[in-house]
């Protein structure tokens, strides 16, 4: 289990409001984005749910983003329903190889598994599917093995994952991180209320601490004819000292103005902007269907050791 984890979500909207997302041009429709800046030329790549992991690239976070195709156009070799409709990518550079984790599942099912593909360049046509990582779930498990996120701690690797059920779990991985070591996953985040609506965890190391971001709330089917209630998707972490195993979590970013349900987030270190929070959201001026979700991002600032947008 990974220790010194901090969770977060800032209830500051009543004081100063939330910053709007950074600008985006070109192919801005996205769901569950994963963003990385290529090491040797600074080009940005964005991977998203759909089209067997859609790929877009740009010269800046603002775009213009251009669609490139799919990571795995033939789907995953994992023998589960949903292996032709891959979800929730997570991408990292490990040594000289890019690792992309993905989820295989169907909506509302606990029959799920996390897979892995690798590439030397991030480009479409260079990805090799390695299939199952050994992190999987089935009916009766306390977790659902989707929404993967890898973090390295020294020479060790951990895969954090989960959605609903008992929320967020973490499994130690081999080195290099192609497989689970087989140890039982540890529970990191649990909210016993309602439908346990927590998912999309992302661990980010900064200045000696590990910050665990996660999405809380319901992601879709918003009634935008009514004001936001706080039950929509929002990005969280905890700065109030409450354990995330006991419903802890401070809001970092929530619905505001024409921005509905920000979530499906990650964080990466931009070569010019420093730490950047990226996510998807519904823009009520555009539409709120899944296919209309937009790419959002904000440079993070830090106050008393806590990130804000």
Report the mean per-residue pLDDT as an integer: 86
Shape: globular
Q: Please report the number of helical segments.
A: 0
Distance between the termini: 29 Å
Overall radius of gyration: 18 Å
The computed structural class is mainly beta
Counted beta strands = 22
Give a short account of the largest sheet: 5 strands, mixed
* Low-pLDDT regions: 1-16, 220-237
Strand content: 35-45%
Element string (H = helix, E = strand)? EEEEEEEEEEEEEEEEEEEEEE
Q: Name the helicity range.
A: under 10%
Notes on the protein architecture:
With 309 residues, the protein is mainly beta. It is 0% helix and 44% strand. Strands 1, 14, 15, 16 and 17 form a five-stranded mixed sheet that branches. A four-stranded antiparallel sheet has the order 2-3-4-5, with no helix packed on it. The radius of gyration is 18 Å and the shape is globular.
Short overview:
With 309 residues, the protein is an all-beta fold. The protein is 0% helix and 44% strand.
List the helices and strands and how they pair.
Blueprint: E1 5-7, E2 34-37, E3 44-48, E4 54-58, E5 66-70, E6 87-94, E7 97-104, E8 112-119, E9 128-137, E10 149-153, E11 156-161, E12 168-173, E13 186-189, E14 198-206, E15 209-216, E16 234-237, E17 250-253, E18 259-270, E19 274-283, E20 294-299, E21 301-303, E22 306-308
Parallel strand pairs: 1-15
Antiparallel strand pairs: 2-3, 3-4, 4-5, 6-7, 7-8, 8-9, 10-11, 11-12, 12-13, 14-15, 15-16, 16-17, 18-19, 19-20, 21-22
């Amino acid at each position: 289990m990974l220790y010194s984890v901090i969770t977060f979500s800032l209830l500051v909207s009543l004081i100063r409001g939330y910053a709007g997302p950074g600008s985006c041009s070109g192919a801005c429709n996205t769901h569950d984005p994963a963003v990385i800046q290529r090491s040797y030329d600074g080009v940005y790549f964005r991977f998203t749910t759909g089209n067997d992991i859609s790929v877009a690239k740009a010269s800046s976070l603002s775009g213009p983003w251009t669609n490139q195709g799919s990571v795995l156009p033939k789907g995953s070799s994992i023998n589960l329903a949903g292996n032709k409709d891959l979800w929730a990518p997570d991408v990292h550079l490990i040594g000289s190889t890019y690792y992309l984790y993905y989820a295989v599942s169907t909506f509302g099912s606990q029959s799920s598994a996390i897979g892995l593909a690798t590439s030397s360049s991030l480009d479409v046509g260079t990805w090799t599917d390695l299939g199952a990582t050994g992190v999987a779930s089935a009916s009766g498990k306390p977790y659902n093995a989707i929404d993967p996120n890898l973090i390295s701690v020294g020479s060790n690797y951990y895969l954090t994952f989960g959605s609903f059920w008992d929320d967020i779990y973490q499994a130690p991985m081999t080195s290099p991180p192609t497989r689970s070591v087989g140890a039982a996953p540890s529970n990191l985040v649990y909210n016993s209320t309602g439908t346990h609506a927590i998912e999309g965890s992302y661990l980010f190391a900064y200045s000696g601490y590990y910050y665990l971001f996660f999405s809380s709330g319901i992601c879709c089917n918003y009634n935008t004819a009514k004001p936001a209630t706080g039950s929509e998707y929002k990005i969280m972490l905890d700065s109030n000292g409450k354990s995330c195993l006991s419903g802890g979590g401070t809001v970092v970013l929530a619905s505001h103005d024409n921005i509905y349900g920000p979530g499906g987030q990650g964080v990466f270190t931009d070569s010019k902007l420093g730490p950047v929070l990226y996510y998807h959201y519904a823009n009520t001026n555009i539409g709120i269907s899944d296919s209309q979700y937009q790419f959002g991002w904000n440079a993070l600032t830090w106050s008393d050791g806590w990130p804000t947008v």
